Amino acid sequence: MARSIQSLERAAAVLRLLAGGERRLGLTDIASAIGLAKGTTHGLLRTLAKEGLVEQDPASGRYQLGAELLRLGSGYLDTHELRARALVWTDDLARATRESAYLGVPHGRGVLLLHHVFRPDDSRQVPEVGALHPLHSTALGKALAAWDPAVRAEASRGALEAFTELTVVDPARFGADLDRVRARGWASDVGETWDGVASIAAPVVDRGRAAVGAVGITGAVERVLADGEPRPWLVAAVRDCARSVSRELGAGRF
Hints:
Elements: H1 6-19, H2 27-34, H3 38-50, E1 54-56, E2 63-65, H4 67-78, H5 81-97, E3 100-107, E4 110-117, E5 132-134, H6 139-147, H7 149-156, H8 171-184, E6 187-190, E7 197-205, E8 211-220, H9 221-224, E9 225-226, E10 229-230, H10 232-248
Antiparallel strand pairs: 1-2, 3-4, 3-8, 4-5, 6-7, 7-8, 9-10
Helix pairs in contact: 2-3, 5-10, 6-7, 6-8
């Protein structure tokens, strides 16, 4: 087995730490979190800052991710075929449903968001491209897990974290939920990750009928649901979008 380069592993640990949790962290916080001496950590941060991968706030001295990461991430997105094929269809989905639309792919125990289309109104919204959402409590994650045995196994591994009172944390119930998702062809979540928020998603498949991603919408419960269930016309819009992207990838009609 090839030996890893310790300094790169440590730098990656710093970047992952800054990517989650608080937006800015001090030197002591970072050193403690990754288990390194402050001097070693400071050297890593200084090098990362020189390359534009982290930035230090002049007023507080705290560190955050740097703008160079955005450029690197954009390069990855630009070469991702699924995202390129889905751009027009997810834009249309947001416009038709008047809700935020998302495209996600499995990544570890989460769903990596490759594309996010804002809800078409004047409300203040934050771009979520690059964010990692849970597999077990989101419609996108459940759509992926229901179609891909490997993703299902990853989602079911270990304890299921409760984000709200409605999060499904019982493994048997979670498995039954995925079976229902597979049978009906789409997934939903109602307040399972964020209170008052509901989502609908459907899988995107390739020419071999393997799930390669999922598309979906997210909005306030009162807009997405009617009589406690996802509005049928919203479900139809999401499924039509997923089918359209799948056909772009060579899948037959389904």
